[in-house]
C-alpha cells in the first residue's frame, strides 16, 4: 500500500521545529511544543496534523504575530527546483497554515510571507482567506505576481484563485462573479512554464462547473488569438469536465463530433480483476456515417461503495477519428490501491462513453486479494 499522506507531517517534523526554533525565537519552549503535539499526532489525518502544529506554534512562539512570523521564515530553505522530484518542503505546511489562520490582521506582512513560502511549499490554501477578507488588496498583489520571475509565485495566482480547489476554502464571491479570476488567468494563459499553464487550465475547469458557456467562450477566443500546441493542451485540459459531460460546444472545441448514430457492439470485459491488476476491455464502435467522426472515448467506472451503491468516475481515454464502418478498440485500465478511495469487493460496472454519451457497459467482479 502507498505511504499514507498523513505521514508527510510526522514526529520528525515536530522534532525539526523543536530543534530549530529556539535559536530563531529565544524563549520558545521546545519541550512544551513537543508535549502539545507528539501525543496527539498519530490519531490525526494530514490536515488535522497541520492544524495541530500551527496551533502549537501560535501558542508557544513568543511575541506578537510579526515577530513569530519572522522566526518561522527563518526555517525556509532554497526554492523548490521544478526540474527535480520531491522538492516541495511539506514540513512548511504548518507555517502556511499559521499565516492563514493567525495573520489576517497583518495582510501586507502575511502576503509577503506567502510570496516566500509558496516558492518552497504552495500557499494556495493560505491565501484564500485574504481573498475573502482583504479582496482588493490581495487581488492587486496577485496582479503584480503574474509578472513575478518565479513560476511558483505565478502559479499561486492561478491555483490560489481556484473557486473549488480540492481541500481548499470555496471562493463563493468568485463563483458568483468570475471576472476578477478570469482577468488574472488572461495574464497567465501563455506563461512560459507548463507548471503555471496546467494550473490555469485547472482553474478554468473549476469555473466551468458554474459558468460553462463563459469558459467555452474564453477557450475559443484563446485558441484563435494564441495558436499553437501549448494553448491547445491548456484548452483541452480546461474543458475536460465539460467534455466528459458531453457538452456539444466543448466537444467541438476539443475537436470531437457528436455521438449520433454511433453504436457499440462486441463488448467483452475482464470478468474478474484483483485489486492491483488491470481491467481489460475489447469492443467495436460502429460509425454509420460516410465520413470519419472525431471521437473522445472515455471509460466510466462505477465503484462499489460501502453501502452497496455505485459511484461513477470518468477515466479519460482515447481521442481518435472513427472511420466509416467498424473500429475495434482495446483498452486497459489499471485498478490500483489509492489512499483517497476505499475499494469494496464485489460487482462493479464499467461503461464506454463516446463524445460524452454512454454507448454500453458490462459488470465485472473486483477482488481485494491478500492484504498481506
Shape: globular
What percent strand?
15-25%
What CATH architecture of the largest domain would you give?
Alpha Horseshoe
| Helix content percent band | 40-55%
Structural class: alpha+beta
Mean pLDDT value: 93
The counted number of beta strands is 8
Strand arrangement across the biggest beta sheet: 2-8-7-4-5
CATH topology (fold) name of the largest domain = Serine Threonine Protein Phosphatase 5, Tetratricopeptide repeat
Low-confidence stretches: none
CA radius of gyration:
24 Å
Major β-sheet annotation? 5 strands, mixed
* First-last Cα distance: 10 Å
CATH class of the largest domain: Mainly Alpha
What's the domain count? Answer: 2
Order of helices and strands: HHHHHHHHHHHHHHHHEEEEEEEE
Question: What is the helix tally?
Answer: 16
In CATH, the homologous superfamily of the largest domain goes by the name ARM repeat domains
Amino acid at each position: 500500500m502507498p505511504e499514507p499522506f498523513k505521514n508527510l507531517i510526522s514526529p520528525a517534523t515536530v522534532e525539526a521545529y523543536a530543534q530549530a526554533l529556539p535559536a530563531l525565537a529565544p524563549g520558545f519552549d521546545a519541550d512544551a511544543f513537543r508535549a502539545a503535539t507528539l501525543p496527539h499526532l498519530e490519531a490525526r489525518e494530514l490536515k488535522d496534523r497541520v492544524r495541530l502544529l500551527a496551533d502549537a506554534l501560535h501558542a508557544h512562539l513568543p511575541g506578537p504575530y510579526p515577530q513569530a512570523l519572522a522566526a518561522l521564515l527563518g526555517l525556509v530553505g532554497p526554492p523548490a527546483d521544478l526540474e527535480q522530484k520531491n522538492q516541495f518542503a511539506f514540513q512548511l505546511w504548518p507555517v502556511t497554515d499559521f499565516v492563514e489562520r493567525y495573520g489576517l490582521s497583518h495582510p501586507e506582512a502575511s502576503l509577503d510571507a506567502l510570496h516566500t513560502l509558496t516558492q518552497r511549499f504552495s500557499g494556495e490554501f493560505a491565501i484564500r482567506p485574504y481573498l475573502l477578507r482583504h479582496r482588493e488588496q490581495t487581488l492587486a498583489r496577485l496582479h503584480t505576481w503574474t509578472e513575478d520571475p518565479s513560476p511558483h509565485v505565478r502559479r499561486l495566482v492561478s491555483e490560489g484563485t481556484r473557486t473549488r480547489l480540492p481541500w481548499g476554502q470555496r471562493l463563493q464571491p468568485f463563483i458568483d462573479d468570475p471576472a476578477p479570476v478570469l482577468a488574472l488567468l488572461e495574464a497567465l494563459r501563455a506563461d512560459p512554464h507548463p507548471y503555471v499553464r496546467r494550473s490555469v487550465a485547472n482553474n478554468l475547469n473549476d469555473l466551468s462547473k458554474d459558468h460553462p458557456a463563459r469558459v467555452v467562450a474564453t477557450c475559443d477566443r484563446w485558441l484563435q488569438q494564441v495558436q499553437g500546441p501549448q494553448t491547445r493542451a491548456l484548452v483541452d485540459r480546461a474543458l475536460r469536465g465539460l467534455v466528459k459531460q458531453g457538452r456539444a460546444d466543448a466537444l467541438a472545441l476539443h475537436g470531437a463530433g457528436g455521438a449520433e448514430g454511433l453504436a457499440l457492439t462486441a463488448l467483452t470485459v475482464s470478468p474478474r480483476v484483483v485489486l492491483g491488476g488491470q481491467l481489460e476491455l475489447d469492443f467495436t464502435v460502429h460509425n454509420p456515417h460516410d465520413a470519419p467522426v472525431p471521437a473522445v472515448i472515455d471509460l466510466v467506472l462505477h465503484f462499489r461503495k460501502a453501502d452497496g451503491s455505485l459511484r461513477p468516475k470518468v477515466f479519460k481515454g482515447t481521442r481518435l477519428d472513427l472511420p466509416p464502418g467498424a473500429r475495434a478498440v482495446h483498452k486497459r485500465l489499471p485498478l490500483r490501491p489509492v489512499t483517497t478511495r476505499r475499494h469494496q469487493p464485489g460487482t462493479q460496472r464499467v461503461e464506454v462513453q463516446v463524445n460524452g454519451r454512454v454507448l454500453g457497459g458490462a459488470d465485472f467482479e473486483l477482488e481485494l486479494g491478500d492484504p498481506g
